[in-house]
Design goal:
This protein is an alpha+beta fold. Among the domains are: 129 residues, Beta-Lactamase (2-Layer Sandwich); 205 residues, Heat Shock Protein 90 (2-Layer Sandwich), CATH 3.30.565. 51% of the residues lie in helices and 19% in strands. It contains 16 helices and 17 strands. It has a 5-stranded antiparallel β-sheet, sandwiched between helices. Strands 7-6-10-9-8 form a 5-stranded antiparallel β-sheet, with helices on both faces. A 5-stranded mixed β-sheet has the order 12-14-15-17-16. 26% of the residues are buried.
Length: 605
């Protein structure tokens, strides 16, 4: 029992428990506070915003629709007053076929002038009398069907300047069975009676048929994402327009419409209604021009989804509370994490103190345990770093020696071959001169105390090599030196130039018929030492050149690869060889080295 109690106490004193407890407490407190504020304010603002938005949409939509109807009213009025139209309808039955056709074409042209300006929504514009005299522009109506409609009789019996607006109907020629309840295939019409200006008798009607697409585009598109629109005829309680909606997944019955109309107290207003066991916000507005009432039906459950003001308000409140929580959390965690900060600082300082921890933590919790583990870990890291440095130094030294050892047999083979050639061919004392030059070259390889020599010494060594090769090639080449003043004492890796010059003699001048020329230049450029070796020999093609420098395949130009590798190993990747060559023209090898003026300068990576 005592052990269990001790473990519980240890858990309660752990920093993990303390920090977790405080953060959870803050999250619960602020989460509950923000939720209360959100739900107390969102309902009011959501309803207010939905009402204002819907009312404005309906107002603008009705205004746009009335403007379209006024345009149609203007068209039918102008046509009804047209003298040519009046003459055609009055005298059409008395004309011979030719006269009738000519006059009909004239009236068609008049109608087309009005139709062209409003072609997007207009199905047809036509004039008609009861004797069958007619003219139209647009889709051709069946006039017998038109004369059977109730609105046509209403137009004939209308007063002098009365405009008759017919409810949406299927125009003649449309398959009603296939397109039932599809408003895109319905039209509404604006009509006016045409009178004889002399007698005042009615002589026909003018009709502008408008696709109900205009209702979809003006009314339905504005509220499609939030609710649905319905237009009711005030006089007959008929539904003028009610597009299909994903939001309203049922069809309003006549009883539902009558129930809604009881709440239409004023010309505009809003109220809440329960339809099909669902609550809706109803926003309505009546038009004196059409005597229709436009109704927006918005489910209450989606009001909050479109409510941006309350969201911004709640985000603001959340930000305030979050900031307050951050301050409180910072104060509390500062007390709890004091030793963590202390340990963190000690670890950072250890990078500059040979990985020694300067802090002394005795908190008897996880931080003290972590502190002890860090001490052990840093001690192991120090030992590991020392071993790695020692190992890398020995490895690099071995790699450089291996690369030099690869060059030496290659060079010694060619040199000894030269001595053999002279001994057999000449049998003269010139062998002594060659041997003396060879001994100088061997001396530089035997000296393992240093990797660096002066540029002047390196030039002398390459001159010794050239003097040996002059016996072999007997005037077939010449070498020029152009050394910038003041750089002779700069330190360079030994045996850099000899493999490159050898490459020019052995491969560059192989089978050439002209005098081979090698130009060796050394100069200082952009805080680096540049040495170039140029020859006028055979050159190297680009594919072979890439293989030589990459060392990806065995190559007879091993000297170039090894010199490049030695430089990069010793000085770093930014230094090394660059080779430029054109076949049968030239080869230029450019060496880039750091400037090292004394033995004490450390340019070794």
């Amino acid at each position: 029992m005592a052990d269990i109690f001790k473990k519980i106490v240890e858990k309660l004193h752990s920093i993990r428990f303390k920090f977790t407890f405080m953060v959870v407490l803050l999250i619960i407190f602020f989460g509950v506070s923000i939720s209360i504020i959100w739900y107390s304010q969102s309902s009011y603002y959501a309803k207010k915003t939905a009402i204002d938005y819907s009312s404005e949409v309906i107002r603008i939509s009705i205004k746009d629709f009335e403007s379209s109807l006024l345009e149609a009213q203007g068209i039918v009025t102008l046509i009804s007053l047209d003298k040519d139209v009046e003459a055609f309808l009055s005298n059409g039955n008395n004309m011979n076929p030719k006269e009738y056709l000519l006059n009909k074409r004239k009236i068609d042209k008049i109608l087309s002038g009005y139709f062209g300006s409003y072609r997007k929504y207009y199905r047809s514009i036509f004039v008609l009398n009861e004797t069958g005299v007619s003219s139209n522009y647009g889709e051709f109506p069946i006039y017998e069907d038109v004369m059977k409609t109730s609105w046509y009789r209403k137009v004939l019996n209308s007063s002098e300047n009365e405009i008759v607006i017919a409810l949406p109907y299927y125009p003649s020629g449309v398959d009603i069975g296939r397109n039932k309840s599809n408003y895109k295939h319905m039209v509404l019409s604006v009509s006016k009676k045409i009178k004889d200006s002399a007698t005042g008798n009615k002589i026909g009607v003018v009709v502008a048929e408008i696709w109900t697409d205009i209702l979809i585009n003006i009314f339905d598109s504005n509220l499609r994402d939030n609710g649905t629109i319905m237009i009711i005829n005030n006089s007959s309680d008929e539904v003028v327009f009610q597009p299909k909606s994903e939001i309203l997944d049922f069809e309003l019955k006549k009883t539902d419409i009558l129930k809604l109309k009881k709440n239409f107290i004023n010309s505009t207003g809003n109220f809440y209604a329960n339809i099909a066991h669902k609550e809706f916000l109803i926003v309505y507005s009546s038009s004196d021009f059409t005597e229709w009432t436009t109704v927006a039906i918005i489910p209450v459950k989606i009001l909050l989804q479109e409510f941006n003001e309350i969201r911004h308000y709640s985000l603001f409140i959340s930000a305030i509370y979050s900031l307050l929580a951050l301050v409180i959390t910072f104060i509390m965690t500062s007390l709890l994490t004091k030793n963590i900060i202390k340990l963190n600082k000690a670890v950072k300082d250890s990078y500059h103190k040979d990985l020694e921890l300067s802090a002394d933590i005795r908190s008897r919790d996880e931080i003290q345990q972590l502190y002890q583990q860090f001490k052990v870990l840093l001690e192991r890291i120090r030992i590991l770093i020392y071993n790695i440095k020692k190992s890398e130094k020995e490895k690099r030294k071995a790699e450089i020696k291996i690369l030099q050892a690869q060059i030496n047999p290659h060079f010694l083979y060619n040199t000894l071959n030269t001595i053999k050639y002279l001994a057999i061919a000449n049998g003269v004392s010139s062998i002594g001169h060659v041997s003396e030059s060879l001994s100088k070259l061997l001396h530089i390889n035997m000296n393992e105390d240093t990797e660096l020599i002066t540029l002047e010494e390196e030039i002398n060594y390459v001159k010794s090599y050239i003097s040996i090769q002059e016996y072999k090639y007997a005037g077939k080449f010449m070498v020029n030196f152009e050394i910038e003043n003041g750089i002779e004492k700069y330190r360079v890796l030994k045996l850099l130039l000899q493999p490159i010059v050898e490459n020019s003699l052995v491969h560059g001048f192989y089978f050439i018929r002209k005098l081979g020329v090698v130009v060796i230049k050394a100069f200082e450029q952009n805080n680096t030492l540049k040495i170039t070796v140029r020859d006028n020999g055979n050159g190297i093609n680009s594919c072979k050149l890439k293989i030589i420098l990459d060392g990806s395949q065995e190559s007879e130009h091993i000297g170039l690869y090894n010199v490049n590798k030695r430089i990069k190993l010793y000085h770093g990747e930014e230094y090394g060889l660059s080779v430029f060559s054109e076949e049968n023209l030239y080869t230029v090898v450019e060496i880039t080295l750091p400037i090292i003026k004394t033995d004490t300068e450390d340019c070794h990576v």
